[in-house]
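Q: Got a minute? One more chain.
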Amino acid sequence: MQPPQRIAITGASGLIGGALVGHLKSEGHTVQRLVRRASAAPDEVSWDPKAGTVDLRALEGVDAVIHLAGAGIGDKRWTAKYKSEILNSRLLGTTAIAKAVATVKPQVFISASAMGWYGETGNRAVTEHDRTGDDFLAAVCREWEAAANLAGDVRTVKLRTGLVLDPTGGALGKMIPLFRFGLGGRLGSGKQWWSWITLHDLIRAIAFTLVSPISGPVNLTAPNPATNQEFTASLARAMHRPALFPVPAIALKLAFGGFSIEMLGSKRVLPEALLNAGFTFNYPHIGAAIAAMVDPSS
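A: Always. Here it is, folded:
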């Protein structure tokens, strides 16, 4: 086990951030949460991503900074206004944090990104060495990761996160109620690749990057992507329910607008950097992963 560290985290109240804070504290680390208001507790650090300000004095001597904050990709329809919010929340926040990191110089800066970097990959498997895509989210990721480079010579890790699976939230959390009532099914053709990772393994992987000399882009995805049809079949099997109601592509486009592209698109992303660094996934296969997370009697 690594020696206790002092770790600062943005986005600590989200699905990933909340789980990460709990994990790090259980390992004996001291966690400081960056909050967008005046700090009101000893473990809080004030920052304002829009103004580009961070309380640098409170971060002096910190061992690591983990930046997870940003507007949710699938939370709202992709209007022009919300697309601007998606970009600006990442660009402004990452710029502010990276500049702070360059000043206080922790041992490592871990900054969120997304597998959206790769755009549409079809059936082609991609790793951290592959080029960026040409759609909206790929453009967001390019600017997002470029802002992280402002951390200068601090070791920087860019987390290209896949579809995070946890029964309490995210995509899986939204799908479980539909399958519980027998209303689940594949999305569109079901042939599109979904690159996923359990929240459990994701938290372990982030903690791994704290101590591993790994740097640069890191794909946070399980080593065995699944097609949407395989994903929904695994969920139906785990819940002992049928998967009889496929959702037509046109219905997704009407319901989710631009975000439907992500649900219907194909991303076959492999975690080459993690595997080469010696990380071992507890849940490398979709069937076992979903079975471990879903209570069929619920």
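A: The chain has eleven helices and 14 strands.
Q: Perfect, thanks.
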